[in-house]
Design brief:
Blueprint: H1 3-32, E1 50-55, E2 61-67, E3 76-80, H2 90-100, E4 103-107, H3 129-144, E5 153-158, H4 160-171, E6 175-181, H5 186-201, H6 210-228, H7 235-238, E7 246-252, H8 260-270, E8 275-279, H9 287-290, H10 292-303, H11 315-320
Parallel strand pairs: 3-4, 3-5, 5-6, 6-7, 7-8
Antiparallel strand pairs: 1-2, 2-4
């Protein structure tokens, strides 16, 4: 074949590739930056709970609440709420832990709830370095707190909060256990959404391989990061560092925002001691509502892994600490 013809064919292929990626960026970025209509139930503040103010690493102040059990705490679980959620929603997910004897420290990420706002930063459901630094600041607060500093530390997060919890736990060996309810990684979820969009908007014969969608989504994410002056952590790269921790991923089988496949992919990346709990009938962030008894048991069992065996409660004490199933509506 004539070399000039080869060059022309090669040039046409490159031009088509660039055109597809440019078109994808134009389509994906506005969708990526759109706020999803998450339904977050408002929770009334509790008067009999200690309120805390936590200094963030860059001068902001995070605010939250500390829930202490009646007996000496077995450990402390830092609760990271979902996008638009607040620290007051902690007991909607952690009531079983509190009843069993764990301290719960819940907080609001910057830009939501009672915590400080950052001029120019509008939080979305995608995790950024801001949320990761907030969890790290709360970890420092726990280490300096007189009643908490000697306790084993675990993290429990919901949706975006779960992503931040996984990122911090991967980098901090002092975190022994993580529960991630409705977790996702930015790249994986973008690709799953992009594949769904292509399937519904193009002819049946049109096909783009996942690696191609991955490149387009990465380019769109880079553009969005530049526009919003944020960085989205590469959680996929850090997940293997969690293989020696106890990790429980919770996925609602009817979750239309974060497909259960997302939790499966995260679990495969982590390996080791990680497990996935699939909850039939549960939508996004509603796994405990769907099955509170099993939810509380699995979560308590997971966090007991960070408690030294000699401190485990006796069977009689366990019977007395059986979680009281509180309303979660």
């Amino acid at each position: 074949m004539n070399p000039e013809v080869v060059y022309i064919i090669f040039g046409v292929i490159i031009a088509m590739e660039l055109a597809i990626h440019v078109f994808s960026i134009v389509v994906i970025v506005p969708i990526f930056e759109r706020k999803l209509p998450f339904e977050v139930t408002s929770v009334e503040p509790l008067d009999a709970v200690e309120r805390v103010s936590i200094p963030a690493s860059d001068g902001q102040t995070l605010r939250g609440s500390l829930h202490m059990p009646h007996e000496t705490p077995l450990g402390v679980v830092i609760f990271c709420p979902e996008f638009k959620g607040t620290h007051w929603s902690a007991l909607d997910y952690c009531q079983g832990l509190l009843d069993f004897g764990f301290a719960i420290l819940a907080f609001d990420f910057r830009g939501q709830g009672d915590s400080d706002l950052i001029p120019g930063y509008e939080p979305l459901h995608w995790c950024t370095d801001f949320e990761v630094r907030d969890v790290q600041s709360v970890m420092q607060f726990v280490r300096s707190h007189s009643a908490l500093s000697e306790l084993p530390i675990g993290l429990m997060g919901v949706s975006r909060g779960a992503n931040a919890a996984l990122a911090v736990a991967a980098a901090d060996d002092s975190v022994e256990c993580v529960v991630a309810d409705g977790a996702f990684t930015t790249d994986t979820l973008m690709v799953l959404y992009a594949a769904r969009w292509v399937r519904y908007t193009t002819p049946w014969w049109f096909f783009l391989p996942e690696w191609h969608l991955h490149i387009s989504c990465q380019l769109a994410r880079f553009v969005s990061q530049f526009r919003r002056s944020v960085r989205h952590p590469k959680l996929e790269r850090w997940l293997p560092d969690l293989r020696r921790r106890s990790v429980l991923l919770i996925a609602g089988e009817r979750d239309s925002y974060v497909p259960p496949e997302s939790s499966t992919r995260i679990q495969k990346r982590i390996g080791g001691n990680s497990k996935v709990m699939f909850v039939p009938g549960a939508k996004h962030n509603s796994a405990r509502k769907a099955n509170p008894q099993d939810y509380d048991k699995r979560v308590v069992d997971l966090f007991l892994n960070m408690v030294p065996l000699h401190q485990h409660p006796s069977e009689d004490a366990i019977a007395g600490r059986t979680p009281r199933l509180q309303p979660v509506d």
